[in-house]
Amino acid sequence: MIAVIGAAQRPAEIAGSVRPPVAPSRPLALWLFAACLLLAVLVVVGGATRLTHSGLSIPEWKPVTGTLPPFGAAAWQAQFDRYRATPEYRLANPGMTLDGFRTIFWWEYTHRLLARLFGLVLLLPLVVLVVRRRIAPRLAAQLAGIVALVGVQGALGWFMVASGLVDDPRVSALRLTAHLGLATLILALLFRLALGQWTRTGSGPAPTARGRRLRAAARGLVALVFVQLLSGGLVAGSRAGVLFQIFPRMGESFVPAGLWTLTPAPLNLLHNLVTIQFTHRLLAWTLVLAGGLFVLAVRRGPSPRRLCRVATLLAAALALQFGLGVATLLAGVTVGLGVAHQAGALLVLAAAIATAHAAGRSEETAALAVQGGGAVGGALEGSHVAEQEALGMRFEQTGLMPATEHPDGGLERRAGEVGELLAGQADGDPHLAALRLADLARQAQEEQGEARLDPVARQLDDAVAAFDVMTGQGGKQQPEQ
Ligand code: HEM
Questions:
Q1: What's residue 267's pLDDT?
Q2: Are 24 and 197 in contact (CB under 8 A)?
Q3: Pick from 186, 193, 204: nearest CA to 138
Q4: N or C: which end of the chain has fewer CB within 10 A?
Q5: What are the pocket residues of ligand 1 if the criterion is a CB atom closer than 6 Å to any ligand atom?
Q6: Burial class (CB in 10 A: 0-12, 13-18, 19+), 248
Q7: Which residues contact 374 (CB under 8 A, 6 or more apart)?
Q8: Residue 384 — φ and ψ, nearest 5°?
């Protein structure tokens, strides 16, 4: 017989080679997701601030005292006077009225206020959680690192604004790109942590070669999306989007003239508007193609349903973003389309990260769960009422599926039905579901006893074997004869 696994034992103890699963914390995840949402709004408001030419309206950086807006006519006039001393007012907006100033002021002010709020939304709960020891030290350290990056981002924002308070009142495209890049990096890190809290399990079995390829490809997509975001920042910052307002050609051809006019050649990538727009288009084509191929690869073999879903979402988000980019270009970069295109980029980034997260798990898990679930289901069908009830209780205990009463008082499920249910569970938390099922199957087998080995226990044996393979114990734990 296979050794009995007590109900009180943790699933990871069943499979010695598997790292203990760490219970996910949904409240922590919700907090982090909320922070991500706030950051996304902050980034989009930043984009609107740029597109409405409001970014240079507050020519000072007072992280604490600048929290309050001007109160009363005198304070507004003083704020306006400070703006009137800037090169932007003199060269771009001479004759702007106080009312006109208020509009651009409120955009920039809201952006800065949201930034402060975001810092607090991260920092305050973090401090409370650390003081009350309600957060794992590793996660606390990661979040503290992100809070530090938020501080750097604030300084970088001012560094960017300062570059526009000079005789040529336009912020440096490179600094704008760095500001956008750091914002999206923070968003990416936070989102990844949030996902980890939502569905964290043990490390699970080593992925197969296919699993490793899918994971590497998904990570490659995340990196490519990030590079494309930086490229978009350069297009926006250098206003390269007002060139070549046609698509798919750029001028007379797909590859425009004047791509490499600056020397040394790499300078063109940063300062030549033709090259900047061309690179953004080229990366966009590459991403849409790569996203499409990735979905096909995911769907061609056994893959967890979650991975199929997020990969499809990624491909759809990329197609939408591509369309929005073309519309933004053709319309000559209107505020509405520019903002939508920026928000779309954040959606693409989130989808790519979620895909890489889902691909981090063994792609065979779902298929094996169906297989093992089917075997357990078959066992349930064949066993006696008392045993069915015992198994039903076990299912309830594991939380894998609710036991439903059969008219005759027992629990009966068709194999496929059980398999589907377990696959559904495995989809949410595959490794944990698999480990629990292995535990369940062993206990069930113990309950069947030697006398009832055939055919019920054989099916259970199949389930145990399937999960042993999956949990890296294949061949190590054979039933004693
Ligand atoms: C499919 C993937 C794409 C991604 C992830 C992406 C991402 C971005 C990002 C992050 C920005 C900067 C937005 C800002 O800071 O406000 C941007 C700007 C821009 N993108 Fe894309 N883009 C994509 C495709 C395209 C395509 C296909 C086109 C057109 C052919 C395009 C045209 C533009 C233009 C014109 C801008 C400048 C908008 C502005 O000045 O506000 N994009 N893109």
A1: 97
A2: yes
A3: 193
A4: C
A5: 47, 51, 180, 225, 228-229, 232-233, 235-236, 241, 247, 280-281, 284, 287, 318, 321-322, 325-326, 328-329, 333, 338, 341-342, 345, 348
A6: exposed
A7: 415, 416, 418, 419
A8: -75, 165
Q: Give the model's pLDDT for residue 434.
A: 52
| Proportion of the chain in helix, strand, coil states, percent, rounded to 5 | 70, 0, 30
Minimum CA distance residue for ligand 1 atom 13? 342
Considering only CA atoms, which of 296, 273, 177 is closest in space to residue 228? 177
CA 360 vs CA 209, 266, 276: distances in Å: 12, 35, 33
d(CA 355, CA 363): 12
**Cα distances (angstroms) measured from residue 96 to each of 83, 87, 162, 163, 275:** 10, 13, 21, 22, 35
Q: Which amino acid is at 261?
A: T
| pLDDT averaged per 10 residues, the chain (length 481) | 28 34 75 98 97 94 88 95 94 93 96 97 97 93 97 94 86 96 98 86 55 91 98 97 93 93 96 97 98 94 79 98 98 96 98 90 47 52 50 47 38 43 50 53 51 46 54 38 28
pTM comes to 0.77
Amino acid in position 471: T
> How far is Cα 280 from Cα 323, in angstroms, rounded to an integer?
14
- Give the span between the Cα atoms of 144 and 141, in whole angstroms: 5
Q: Residues 313, 283, 153, 176: what is their CA dihedral angle, to the nearest 10 degrees?
A: -130
